[in-house]
Amino acid sequence: MRVQNHIFSVWRQAALKFGYEEYEGPIFEHLELYTGKSGEEIVSQLYNFMDKGDRALALRPEMTPTLARMVIQKGNELRKPFKWFSIPRLFRYERAQKGRLREFFQLNLDIIGTESISAEADLISAIASMLFDFGLTEKDFYIGVSSRRLLASMLEKLEVKEPNLVYPLLDKRLKMSAEDFEKELRSVGLSEDKAKKLNAFMCCSTIEEIDSPELKELFELLKAGGFENCVKLDLSVVRGLAYYTGIVFEVFDKNKNMRAIAGGGRYDNLTETLGGQKITGVGFGMGDVVLADLLAEKNLLSQKKSNLPVFIASFSGDMKILFETAAKFRKNEIACSHSLNAVKFGKQLEMANAAGAKCVVFADGEKSKDGVWEYKILSSGEQGVDCLEKILEAL
Ligand code: HAM
After folding, report:
1. Which residues constitute the domain of residue 221?
2. Residue 61 CB burial class (10 angstroms; 0-12, 13-18, ≥19)
3. Is residue 263 lining ligand 1, measured as CB closer than 6 Å?
4. Residues 198 and 256 grouped into a single domain
5. Pocket mutation for ligand 1, best pick of 40, 62, 134, 279 (most atoms within 8 Å of C-beta)
6. 33 assigned to some structural domain
7. Are residues 387 and 248 in the same domain?
8. pLDDT by residue for the chain (395 residues), tens digit each?
9. Residue 253 Cβ contacting ligand 1 at under 6 Å
10. CA 100, CA 318: separation in Å to the nearest integer?
C-alpha cells in the first residue's frame, strides 16, 4: 500500500501539474459497452456476469469506453476541449504473469474535443515529466510514436487488400527476422516486391525519412518542451485496441525486458460507434504493475516505513499528558502518535523508531513548558528545546 500510495501521489500531482481534472466512473458497465468496440483481445479478457435482473454486465477492463459514454451523456454541457484524468481499478481475465495481473490500477489522461496535435504533445510531455518525477531518466525509458493514418496510407499505396490481417504482423515484426516477416506478409497475400517495400518502410526510424506533417509538428512541440530525447519514431507501435485512428504511442523500458509501461493514442470515432455524436479524443493508460517493477529495479522505491513527523514520549509514562500534548500538535496540523500503554521511556523510543518517526518530543521533559518542547531528531541524535514552528523547521 505504501508503494501504491507513492505511485498514485506522483501520478496525481503530475496530472494536476498539467491541468487535468479528476473523474471516476462505475466499476462495472453493461457488457455491450465493450463487445465489438474495444477489439477482440480485450473482449476475450472480460470478467462478465449476469446480475439478478438478467442484465449482462462486465467489470471494466479499461476506462476509455466509460469516458466515451460519459462524454456522450453530457453532450454539449461540457466545454471542449477538456483534459481529464482518472486512476481506475481495472480487471482483465488474462494469464497472470510478470507485468500483467488480473486486477490492477491504471492512470488515464485524456483530452476530449480537439483535433490539434498539441493534445498529443501535451499527453506525451506529461508522461515524460511524470516518469522524471519518479526519478527515472532518459536512459531508463523511451516513448515510441507512430501513426495509424501513416501506416494505413502506406498499406493503401501498396494496394493491400486486407490491412486488418497485416496490422498484427506489423505489431510482431521486431520479434522475427526480416525474412520471416516478409514470408508472413506473403502468406496474407502481398507480392514479394510489396513485402520488401513494406519492410523497408517499417525500418524508418527518423522523422526525416517519412512523410508525415503531423508527426513532424508533434516532434517539434516535444522538442520545445525539452522532451526530444524521450521520444522516437517507432513504426512497430501499432496498438492492440481497435478504436485508435491517428497517432499511437507506447512507453517501454530501454532494456525492453518488460511489457509496455503505458500506451495510448487518438480515437476519432469512439463516441460515434457508441451511438453518440462524433467527438475526437486522445489519451493514454499507464499501469501500476510494470511501473512498480521498473522503479524497484532502479532502486527508486524507498524502503521508508512511514512519514510520521513526531512521536510523543513521556518520562513518567503518564497517559493523560500524552493525549494532552498530542492534541496540541494535531491542532497545529502536525501528525503525531504515542504509546497507548504506560510503558518505560526506553520502550517508547523503540516504538518511535519502529513507527519511522523523524523526531521524539518529550511531553513532560523539564524544559517542556510555556509553548516550547524538548525534542530529539532521531536520524542525527540532535536534541533541542523549541516552539512547534521551529521544531518543524528542524524536521
Ligand atoms: P492498454 O494498452 O490496454 O490501453 O493498457 C495501457 C497500459 O495498462 C499498459 O501499457 C499496461 O501498463 C497496463 N496494463 C494493461 N493490462 C494490464 C494488466 N493485465 N496488468 C497490469 N497492467 C496492465 C488501454 O487500456 C487504453 N484504454 C488506454 C487509453 C486511454 N487510450 C486512450 N485513453
Report:
1. 2-26+64-297
2. buried
3. yes
4. yes
5. 62
6. no
7. no
8. 989 999 999 999 999 999 999 999 999 999 999 986 666 667 789 999 999 999 999 999 999 999 999 999 998 899 999 999 999 999 999 899 999 999 999 999 999 999 999 999 999 999 999 999 999 999 999 999 999 999 999 999 999 888 888 888 888 888 888 889 999 999 988 999 999 999 999 999 999 999 899 999 999 999 999 999 999 999 989 887 788 999 999 999 999 888 999 999 999 999 999 999 999 999 999 999 999 999 999 999 976 567 799 999 999 989 999 999 999 999 999 999 999 999 999 999 999 999 999 999 999 999 999 889 999 999 899 999 998 888 888 87
9. no
10. 52
User: CA angle, 249 as apex, 244 and 251 as ends, to 5°?
Assistant: 140
- In short, whether 285's Cβ falls inside 6 Å of ligand 1 is yes
The grid coordinates of residue 301 equal 522505491
CA-CA-CA-CA torsion for 8, 12, 18, 22, nearest 10 degrees?
130
Domain count, the chain: 2
Beta strand 21-22 pairing with 82-86: parallel
Q: How many residues does the chain have?
A: 395
Q: 387 and 272, same structural domain? A: no
User: Which residue's CA lies nearest to atom 20 of ligand 1?
Assistant: 100
Asked if 187 and 275 sit in the same domain, the reply is yes
**Is 248 a pocket residue for ligand 1 (Cβ < 6 Å)?**
no
Q: How far is the CA of 323 from the centre of ligand 1 (A)?
A: 47
Looking at residue 231, its amino acid is V
**Residue ID of nearest Cα to ligand 1 atom 16:** 100
* Ligand 1 atom closest to residue 262's alpha carbon, by position in its atom list: 10
Distances (CA, A) of 147 to 72, 126, 190, 247, 318: 26, 19, 21, 4, 69
Q: Which of 314, 247, 250, 245 is nearest to 279 (CA)?
A: 245
Does residue 32 lie in a domain region? Answer: no
